[in-house]
Amino acid sequence: MENNPIYVTQPSLAPLEEYVDLLKGVWDRGILTHNGPLVQQLEKEISKKLGMENFIAVSNGTIAIQMAIKALELKGEIITTPFTWVATLSAIQWEGCVPVFCDIEPDTLSIDPLKIEEKITEKTVAIMPVHVFGNPCDVEAIEKIAKKHQLKVIYDAAHAIGSTYKNKSLLEYGDIAATSLHATKLLNTAEGGGCITTSSELNEKLKRIRFFGHNDAKNIVEEGFNGKLTEVHAALGIANLKYYDEVLQDRKDKYFFYKNALEKLPFLQFQTLKLGEPNYSYFPIIFDTEARLLEVESTLNKQKIYPRRYFYPAVNTLNNIVTYEPMPLAEDIAKRILCLPLYWNLKKVEMHLILDLISKKEYNRV
Ligand SMILES: *Cc1c(COP(=O)(O)O)cnc(C)c1O
Fold first, then answer.
1. What is the CATH number of domain 6-10+243-364?
2. FRET pair for 25, CA 20 to 30 Å: which of 36, 48, 240, 259?
3. pLDDT (tens digit per residue) in 149-170
4. For residue 184, how far is its CA from the centre of ligand 1 (angstroms)?
């Protein structure tokens, strides 16, 4: 066992035969894309599983964010978090908008609602928070601010499939939520994503944008692009979705297994889960110092265990793509946070090994 590298994640995959069975249908029909029957089936099944009205399957999560910006016709400044994956930032910039960073709460790691209003200018058009590691943002406080200042809200909900707030899927909050079905996410289609909105008007518009701006009569009625998911990817999603409940429960079990073992270590902190029910899809640990993080990381690496510094660095520091503005809390957390391996195939013995390596006494002397 010690000889196999352990990465931060591995995709949850249905048995190959079940995927191949679905592919046979694709070959029989000869339909590979263009909103084919499997894409429609995947959309229905995801909506049903998460208890939502609409789920628009798209080619990836980054495109889902861009489609949300296009659908809301946003031009101007979008307030977002520096503690995210670079895709949040690049999607905003690719749509010709300007990201304005607002620092995070150092405990929940979410954008700090108390700091949003001071970032609003006459150019602000929207707020784009991220449900970091599937942990719900303060959706009610954010909605209040948005209403007061007539701003749109787009959630980067790439991590949030399976999270709920007030017993409703977290994906149904905001004007539009954009999620990801990437290989590393809880539910995957290899590459893929989704746009979710409770507005039927926006739902229709997003579908047109996904398909070059075509309406049902195949006239080009607006500026769209190609955001389509293929049948081959949808088949994988349908196959994987059958195991979704088990995967979700498994993450939760493993999350608490880690948490119970690590809680007693004086040099560690954890993301605070305050609101709603997260999906426990990641297990980040926050060290007291970056030096200790580096030491633990190197100890793990020596045993071919590769946790990931996620999110690192804070995206406001990427000064080749944005103008740097200090975000002290996000930058500090980004330096001290490490995501431990957490996935379906991860074995208990591997988790024990990881826990032992992290708990080694000599770290206390750092
Ligand atoms: C994965 C991820 C994305 C992008 O999703 P892709 O499907 O990989 O394009 C965006 N934001 C966050 C926070 C992510 O983790």
1. 3.90.1150.10
2. 48
3. 999 999 999 999 999 999 999 9
4. 9
